[in-house]
Request: fold
Amino acid sequence: MLSPIALAGRLRRLLEVPLGGACATLGAQEPDENPKQAALKNIYSLGRNSCMSEKGHWEHVYKTKASDEVSWFQPHAKTSLDLIKKLEPDPEAHIMDVGGGASLLVDDLIASGYRNLSVLDISSSALEVTQKRLGVAANKVRWIVEDVIRLSLPKHSIDVWHDRAVFHFLTTSVQRDQYVKTVLNSVKPGGHVIVSTFATDGPEKCSGLPVQRYSAGSLHDQFGEPFVLLGHEYENHRTPFGTDQHFIYCYCRVVDA
Ligand SMILES: C[S@@+](CC[C@H](N)C(=O)[O-])C[C@H]1O[C@@H](n2cnc3c(N)ncnc32)[C@H](O)[C@@H]1O
Reply:
């Protein structure tokens, strides 16, 4: 009987996948992933979770998977789009999709007439996918490759901050506090913040990474008094693999100065 590490070494040689020696642990299939790809992915993920940087993780995802092969794919980000249209009808409003990745939200925002759009992501590969898809329309968008935790934007330059499935990756209070500080610095008083995470009955992992799950109340608690909770919505997201993931969306107005 081979030990897990010996088995990992044998599989790695077989697949010619680089593997950091000290990180060899076999991962279990994660509930948000395509079961058909799970066996192969688990072999590759030997060492990935503990050895690869966060940015490296996301670059790898977008280099190796088509945008409709990831669990969070939506042909249209309908809940997000409807909320943005409801909260901010002004086509000149500055809307930022944080951790936008390869989401088609920006396509639909352009089609809806919004003219002042930014998409931020930690992964340049993700943004390249979206830029290629948009073609010349990509010139209408500001693209920012940055870790949201390190983001420094001109003060009060954003009218709508949108984040679907990024905040839930922040599993320490230090990261979350920094995120909230960044939102407060970036979003105008009177501007809007839409944050969506896995709900309390959502998966415990996303893209193989651990996440923090929230109710509407516990998500709003992370942001606190400067954010007036206007409402929340639940979404049952059907993944491309036919499984369901429960999301919560909270939307708030930043208090006027
Ligand atoms: C689960 S995906 C969601 C993508 C998109 N929002 C959607 O709903 O289709 C998470 C996205 O956040 C990006 N991301 C993860 N951590 C980030 C960080 N610290 N700063 C900026 N982007 C991040 C990833 O590259 C990825 O595109």
Notes: The longest helix spans residues 173-186. The beta strands are 94-98, 116-121, 141-145, 158-164, 187-198, 205-206, 209-210, 227-238, 244-254. The chain is about 35% helix and 25% strand. The CA atoms of residues 155 and 186 lie 5 Å apart.
